[in-house]
Structures are given as C-alpha cells and as structure tokens.
Amino acid sequence: MPIRSILAGAGGYLPERIVTNDELARTVDTSDEWIRERTGIKQRHFAGPHETATFMGTEAARAALAHAGAEVADVDAVILATSTPDQAFPSTAVRVMAALGVKGGFGFDVAAACAGFIYALSVADGMIRAGQAKGVLVIGSEVYSRILNWEDRGTCVLFGDGAGAVFLRAGDGSGTDRGILSTHLHAQGTLGDILYVDGAVGQRGKPGHLVMNGREVFRHAVTRLAEAVDEALNANNLTRADIDWLVPHQANQRIIDGMGRKLGLAAERVVVTVDRHANTSAASVPLALNEACQDGRIKPGDMVLLEALGGGLVWGSALVRM
Ligand code: ACO
Fold first, then answer.
1. Which atom of ligand 1 has the smallest separation from the CA of 39?
2. For residue 226, what are the CA distances in angstroms to 178, 219, 262, 304?
3. Domains along the chain?
C-alpha cells in the first residue's frame, strides 16, 4: 500500500505590530509610492520582543493542528524552516516541540532561506513515504526584522516577520489522488553572493545583516521559477489547465504576476499576501496557503502548486492535491 502525505491542516501567525510604508518612510529614505510600484508591498508585520521564531512557530503549529482536527499526541516530528532561529542550537523545531508538549518523536531545522518551507515540506514528505513518521508539523518561522540593515533602503523595506505551518498526515495512497504529488528541489551555490547574510552566530559582535543584489535575484527568480513550474507539470503529466491555485513565494508582485501568466491563471487564482505581509521568507508560502484555506478559496480536491526561491540560490516546487 503506497503511503501519501496528506496536507490535513494549515495555520499561521502574524506579529501584532503592523508597519505601513508611510511609517517606514519616517525613518528610511523611501516612499510608499516607490515601494508599492516596485514590489506591491503596502505594509508588513514586525515582531515584538516576545514574538520570537519559537513563539510564532508554536502559534502557527497550534492553528494547523486545530485546522486538521489533530492533537499534539498525533505529532511525531517537527521540521521547521528558518534563517532567523532564536539560537544556534537547540533548533527552533525542538523549542516548538517543548512549547507544544510533544512527547517523543524528533525535530530539526532546515536552512534554505526563502525556499525553506518547500525544502522542509519535501523532507517531511520523504520521511512520511519512507514510514519514518506519521504526523509531521512543517513550519516556516522568520524574524527578518532582526537581520535587516536599516541603512540599506534597497532591502529593509522588503521584508516582514511571521510564521506559517501545515500538518501532514500519512495516508493510504491507493484509490485517492489526495496529498503531496511531487516536490522538486534545486540549488546553485555559485550564486551564493547575490543574496546572503554577512555574519553568523560564530562571528563575535557580528550577527549579520541581509545583503542583496536585487536585480540579479529578480533575473534568476523569473527564469528558475518558470523552469520549476514546467518541471512540476511534466513530472505529473499535467498541463497548466490542471492547476487550480498557485501559491508562490511572496517576494515581489511583479515576479508573482509573471508566474501566474506563465500558468495562464486568472489573477484571482494566484494567492497574494505580499501587499500585507511583505516577504516573510520561509513563512511566506505557508502563510499564503493558510489564508486561502481559511477563507474558503482553496477547497478539498483542488490542485495547488507551491513554489519559492531564495538565497543560495535555492529554489523548488511542491504540487499538492488538497
Ligand atoms: N526607496 C526609494 N528608492 C530606492 C529604494 C527605496 N526603498 N531602494 C532603492 N531605491 C533606488 C535606488 O537607489 C536606485 O536609485 P538610482 O537609480 O538613483 O541609483 C533606484 O531606486 C533603483 O534601484 P534598484 O535596486 O535598481 O531597483 P529595482 O528596480 O531593481 O527594484 C527590487 C529593487 C524591488 C529589490 C527588485 O530588484 C526585486 O524585487 N528583486 C528581487 C527580490 C527577490 O525576489 N527576493 C527573493 C528572495 S529573498 C530571500 O531569499 C531572502
């Protein structure tokens, strides 16, 4: 009997504090008009002191379990994607396990920048299919406000904080086409210097700030994500017409629009949160997925394509029948 990873529930958490472009423009040499025109971003959420990656990830996980009608006892693994962990170790994943009260099982973090959730989902899917876990929380939780360089207006206006999560349940794959149909992961390490953090926990006094060559990232994102869309369709013998929803990484409205056009999807079939959340890195795809599941747009049986690209460069896709 083949095993499938069923996406049983989704959840999200956004920090209480909302910062509009106008508010940002009081301290950064920028304007609402510039940010909106180039990116589509109108506002973002910034975490307060208590809204750590662990806290937000735990809240998102609780919401995903509730949505799935699952209990903490059903969780035997937590895989958490983040580039902004609260500590070098223990992993944010095991901190979330402790906060939730998960007894036993295993947990670890995945570092793949903005593609982190797709990477974590792929790892979780592989473990479920291999029979290593039956109930997996896959979380993206990020506090980018703590690694932004406020002197660099080209990057500090682009990001926000938040967490999104899904609960995957091992299901019987025979006689159903529900669940994760495929995941595809890619990396090109030679492009590591077009988007990176210039420090690390190990470098005393230099926790690091995000550095980005926006034009280069934009150029690669459009090409690589278009390839990823084709790859996912071809691997499943599907055509563009089979896709009901695109849930893309939320970095820039122009990149999102380009992917929607590539799939021939009407704009209302592309889930967009970048206007309100900005780029929340590994949290952006699960936050967008959660929003569209909660408001009833995405329904059981719908075919959903997830895709993301981030610093590395790393990128990938996941195709899911809800
Ligand atoms: N406000 C006002 N002006 C600004 C700002 C700002 N916030 N930022 C830059 N500018 C100015 C620049 O100084 C420049 O001025 P100049 O022409 O006088 O020199 C001008 O605006 C154009 O700057 P560019 O950086 O060339 O602007 P561009 O059109 O490339 O847009 C952007 C920048 C929005 C960042 C775009 O390149 C982009 O979206 N890139 C992709 C980002 C992305 O997808 N990231 C995803 C991965 S993120 C991750 O993995 C962590």
1. 34
2. 25, 11, 7, 16
3. 1-322 (3.40.47.10)
Say how many Å lie between the CA of residue 215 and the centre of ligand 1: 7
**Residue 218 corresponds to which tokens in the numbers above?**
């934009």
Tell me the residue ranges of DSSP E strands in 188-290. 195-197, 210-212, 245-248
CB of residue 219 inside a 6 A radius of ligand 1: no
Instruction: Output the CA 315–ligand 1 centroid distance in Å.
Output: 21
Neighbours of 14 (CB within 10 A): 25
Give pLDDT tens digits for 62-81: 999 999 999 999 999 999 99
Closest Cα to atom 22, ligand 1: which residue? 154
| Distance (Å, whole) CA 304 – CA 27 | 39
For helices 253-262 and 32-39, angle between their N-to-C axes, nearest 10 degrees:
20
Encode pLDDT of 25-36 as tens digits: 999 999 999 999
Examine the residue annotation and report whether 236 is marked as an active-site residue of this protein.
no
Supply the pTM of this predicted model: 0.96
Residue 157 alpha carbon to ligand 1 centre in Å: 9
